[in-house]
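Why do we care about 3D structure at all? Because function follows from shape, and shape follows, mostly, from sequence. That is the central idea of this module. The next example makes it concrete: a single protein chain, its amino acid sequence, and then its structure expressed as tokens.
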Amino acid sequence: MERADLPGPKLWLVVERGLDQEAKVKYYLSNAEAQVPLLTLVQVGHTRWPVEDCFLQGKQEVGLDAYEVHSWLGWYHHMTLVMLALWFLKLETQRLGKKAADGIRLPDVRRLLQVLLAPEPPVFAATRPGHLRLAATAEPAGA
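And the structure:
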């Protein structure tokens, strides 16, 4: 098909339909060359879903979407820390998954690290009405 000097890059509409009973039609645009084999085009098109899954895990596990910043620099710092945290969790999931018989999932690693790294909340004791001290430093009654 001739483009007749239309502006913009050449794009292909790739349409894919499954062979199961509820055959869903999936489609996406590609800017690949005409010589690219169809199998390669489909394989590259399927890399979209792992990327979307990564963003979903980032939102669920490390707060990718939980930013309240007022500048580009604040947003950049938040995104950098979130991506580093997600990368760390992924590496730990792979490392610990090799040791576990049934594998370990990313949420399990996050909860495990929360338990191991979160400090115990301080325990306060009332020494007299309206006064609280840390239980470890509270003086015994009658002293």
